[in-house]
Design brief:
Radius of gyration: 20 Å
Shape: globular
Helix content: over 70%
Strand content: under 5%
Number of helices: 13
Order of helices and strands: HHHHHHHHHHHHH
Number of strands: 0
């Protein structure tokens, strides 16, 4: 991968991490508003180190290491830059399993948003799906059945990866639902200490970061690049949390852009798991294109709203 490709991948990772963490930033801002200045500074400074190195760095490294048991911890970290044939072969054998699981997770995440989550309707059809949310479980069950059947024809272990992806989705979704409920209580509660709130925010950050970490594998299998790109994204999210939340909320379709990016990245991972050759620039190009479209729609909507008021 040349230097231009590396830069494009890192920028794509940064953008994807940022837009997929908008909800996280809003929760952070709401809870931080109830904390003392010293505690807020601690979370925004030292919490960033935890968010980057202990979550967005450690998690992808563990995923690659577990998915490729033949590699040691150092090889799992540097695998994509290795010239060792044994390391390259191990990564090539484990990649389809990791990609199938991550792809299923992201596709489920998109359909959950499309069918069940309240939203600003950005394009035609979204309202129809939201009004028929009861079909979510039927749709994802059919998708999983089709993927597992195809996986079994290619590599039985890939089928297990797809099931793990669906399992991870439902587990993390449960944590997110509880987080949103807890956030509403914390925002108006004066009973908890600032330390308790910091610990709560760190747990929430770890939960929300799973989307970005798994989506990152659609860009690259390189743990150092994921750490760099997602780490920059985490820094941007912290900056948004500090002073730009109200401004970000005006761009009402950014969440739509994040979710459609997640759908396309999930599809890229599934296709990649079946051996379809996809250039490294495709995932960043999709992310930039989708986000730009919904950013433009948000600006148009904001101007219309301002004129109307």
């Amino acid at each position: 991968m040349d230097i231009i490709s590396l830069i494009v991948v890192v920028l794509g990772l940064c953008l994807f991490e940022t837009i997929s963490s908008i909800d996280n930033a809003i929760i952070n801002a709401e809870v931080l508003g109830t904390m003392k200045p010293k505690a807020r500074r601690w979370f925004l400074v030292y919490g960033l180190i935890i968010a980057v190195f202990m979550v967005r760095g450690l998690l992808p490294w563990i995923i690659v290491w577990v998915a490729t048991p033949g590699l040691g911890p150092i090889d799992a970290l540097t695998a994509t830059f290795s010239s060792d044939p044994a390391v390259i072969e191990a990564v090539e054998q484990s990649a389809p399993i990791l990609l199938s699981g991550g792809g299923v997770f992201l596709i489920f995440l998109f359909f959950h948003w499309l069918f069940l989550e309240p939203k600003n309707f950005g394009i035609k059809g979204e309202k129809f799906f939201y009004q028929n949310g009861i079909w979510f479980y039927a749709v994802v069950s059919i998708i999983l059945s089709v993927l597992v059947w195809n996986d079994l024809q290619v590599n039985p272990v890939m089928a297990f990866g797809s099931v793990i992806g669906s399992t991870a989705f439902f587990i993390t979704h449960g944590f997110k639902q509880n987080a949103e409920l807890a956030e509403k209580k914390l925002a108006s509660s004066g009973n908890l200490s600032d330390i308790s709130k910091i610990l709560y925010l760190e747990v929430i950050d770890a939960t929300f970061s799973i989307d970005g970490v798994l989506g990152a594998f659609a860009f690259t299998m390189s743990v150092p690049l994921i750490l760099l790109g997602n780490g920059l994204g985490a820094f941007v999210v912290r900056e948004i949390t500090i002073g730009n939340i109200d401004r970000i909320k005006k761009y009402v379709f950014l969440k739509n852009g994040a979710m459609y990016s997640i759908l396309f990245l999930g599809m890229v991972m599934i296709l990649d798991s079946y051996g379809v050759e996809i250039p490294s620039y495709v995932s960043p190009a999709i992310t930039f294109g989708v986000v730009a479209f919904f950013f433009w729609k948000s600006r148009v909507h904001a101007k219309k709203t301002q004129i109307a008021s």
